[in-house]
Specification:
By secondary structure, the chain is mainly alpha-helical. The protein has two domains: about 10-85 and about 175-195; about 95-165. Helices cover about 55% and strands about 10% of the residues. The protein is built from five helices and three strands; from the N terminus they run βαβααααβ.
């Protein structure tokens, strides 16, 4: 089957049934269903590789599938799903910062305690090796206790923010159904959502 070319910034999906787009165990109506994990991974993967983001999502379906009543809900279902996923990432981001703040409080307490105890041990043992080892070991312990909050506030939040921004963009772009030939061309293989193709013109 020769994939269609709808534009350099279009993400194209080619499926044989509308149900392939959604999680098979989700009992909700199509408008509220979760996307199939492979579909989500494919769309997010391609969208993340586009420098300026995708312009639209094009779903290629056989003509009889496009005529189904459920086809009218595909656009809203896809956009609603990515909007919900953006909200979930927002909750995860807030939880991450909550953990970061509590970890920072513990880390600072451990650091202050380590410095105080290290000085006390230094005075107790004097300038010898035992006093120096005890003092330096406690100082190291105090800084290690702050490794987790430092990682959270410097690095861990960034991937979540980028992904949330991407999901918000996917929740607002256009979604279009395009009739596809019902038969597979000779010599071609069937495609499932994990192996769908997007062509850049």
């Amino acid at each position: 089957m020769k994939p269609a070319t709808t534009g350099a910034r279009a993400i194209e999906l080619r499926v044989h049934d509308i149900g392939q787009l959604f999680h098979s165990l989700d009992p909700l109506p199509y408008r509220e269903r979760d996307l199939d994990e492979r579909v989500e991974e494919y769309v997010v993967g391609w969208a993340g590789e586009m420098p300026h983001g995708p312009s639209e999502i094009v779903v290629h379906l056989p003509a009889e599938q496009c005529a189904r009543e459920e086809a009218a809900h595909v656009r809203d279902a896809i956009r609603n799903y990515f909007a919900y996923r953006a909200k979930v990432l927002g909750w995860e981001l807030r939880e991450l910062f909550r953990v970061g703040r509590s970890s920072l409080a513990v880390g600072i307490a451990v650091l202050v305690s380590s410095v105080v105890v290290a000085r006390a041990l230094g005075d107790l043992f004097g300038p010898g090796d035992l006093g120096r080892i005890s003092e330096e070991g406690l100082i190291i312990l105090g800084w290690v206790a702050n490794w987790r909050p430092v990682q959270i506030f410097l690095y861990d939040w960034q991937p979540l923010v980028r992904k949330r921004r991407l999901y918000r963009r996917l929740a607002t772009i256009g979604v279009r159904l395009a009739p596809a030939p019902p038969a597979v061309a000779p010599g071609a293989t069937e495609h499932d959502p994990a192996n769908e193709q997007r062509i850049r013109s």
